[in-house]
Amino acid sequence: MLLFFILLFPLIVGIKLLCVPKYQTLVKKPSFSFLEPFFNIKFLKTSLHSVFILALVLIILSYFIPQKYSVINVQWLPTLGSSFHLELTGLARFLTLLSLIVMYWIFCMTQNNTQTMNDFGIYWGLMLLSLAALIGVFAAKDALLFYFCWELVLVPVYFLASLYGHADRKLFITSKLFIYTFVGSILMLIGIILVASSGGKLDFSYAAFINNNLSLKQESVAFWLIFIAFAIKIPIFPLHSWQPDAYSQAPISLVMYLSALVAKMGLFGIFVWLKPFFITAYDKNSTLIIYLALIGSLYAGFITLKQTTIRRWVAYCSIAHLGIMAAAAFAYNDYAQIGLVIQMFNHGINILGLWLLAYIFENYFKTTQIKDIGGLATKYPVLSILIFITLLANLALPLTNAFNGEFLMLVGIFRNQFWMGVIGVLSVIVTAIYTLTLGSKVVFGEATVKVIEHDKKLCCGYIWGYIFIAIFIFLAGIYPIYTKWNLF
């Protein structure tokens, strides 16, 4: 029942928010004017705060009650061998907790964004529907249901990007995002059907996929069909080119959501829907994929060094981190696997701090150019300290949360092959260079004209957003309690 309500709250409120424009027109009529308070911005924001808080309470409660309350298993499409089976197991629960924390934080930081304020109901309604589908992706124990939720995550994202993205090249970039994700989804559906029909009749249950009857050739084909969809979503080199373009044009709250959460769908898919089913193909192709991921990480790091706009800087920085995480997903040992799960959570929190910096660039200083902002410490000392803490976590300094996960991943990659580890370490070194370069310029460099002449008071909400991130960085870095939870 808990899982049912965790899904139901964002779903119902999301549908309600999508209907807001219609009802706002209706309540203007004298006979319905008494309903107007229920459809103003203040009430809608209160509804969103309530749904996030209730869902967070329920997901935390699920750690302390019997597992049977975190399962939904009913008949759905029996003729196709598919059931509506959702279950919050260790990793699914962990990532659902991350999703709710991140989405609530995003809402608190960007709820007054002028880019989306005029269509508040439609925008956040689509965001909530995508969130409900994302939880379904993490909890699904039926392959057809997993695919269905996977697609439902992306449909609102496409509309959000096309309706609220920046005007410059919006149509081209949204089309590019759609083509990449659509092709990946079609390939994954073919792979899923291939596995589901391997037993003679269609069966999409998780148990049937574990005990599939694929030949070695069929297993290899199904592996690559499904893997490509996951690789696009992470993304892994060379399937990454959609991401920097999409991140540079989409609304900032959507970019935060894509970077912190949607990218984890691919890593989760490898861990739960690839590795257990295709053991032979997984072992056979792991070396190639690890090298692709690590080379992509190093490549993204060098590209980050050359970026002049803050959004593309953060976008390529995220690709560099996710490349190491993807490599760890294919390094077949406990160090890499545990490090990956920890880092999925850490990256989801830390990347928010970098995107909040991009939001401050755009919202307060009206620029996206890194060269325009320098010497923040001279005028905003508290903010500067918090930004620099986030940057230290980005380079995985010891005693920050990212160090625990990244250290374990690198140990696991080294244990797989020495030269893999060398490339991974080089990527970390490049990360340190571009992170410290940005920090020394933006935070401690010479004050630029835009900073000196800026007289608008910084919203204290952004300070609190950074404080939350900083507390998590140090608490999880010094005492990573979540490593004691059942993460698998």
Describe this structure in words.
With 488 residues, this protein is mainly alpha-helical. It has a domain at 284-488. The protein contains 21 helices and two strands. It has helices spanning 2-18, 20-26, 41-61, 90-110, 114-117, 120-139, 143-164, 170-196, 206-210, 216-233, 242-249, 252-274, 279-305, 310-330, 334-364, 376-379, 381-394, 401-416, 418-442, 449-453, 460-478, and strands at residues 71-77, 82-87. It has a two-stranded antiparallel ribbon. Helix 17 (381-394) packs parallel to helix 21 (460-478). The longest helix is centred in the C-terminal third of the chain and has 31 residues, at 334-364. It is globular, with a radius of gyration of 22 Å. The relative contact order is 0.09. Mean pLDDT is 84; it is low at 22-29 and 31-35.
Largest sheet: 2 strands, antiparallel
Quantity of strands, as a count: 2
Our estimate of the beta-strand percent is: under 5%
Question: Which sequence of SSEs, written as H and E, runs from N to C?
Answer: HHHEEHHHHHHHHHHHHHHHHHH
Strand adjacency order, main sheet: 1-2
Structural class: mainly alpha
- What would the principal axes of the Cα set say about the shape? globular
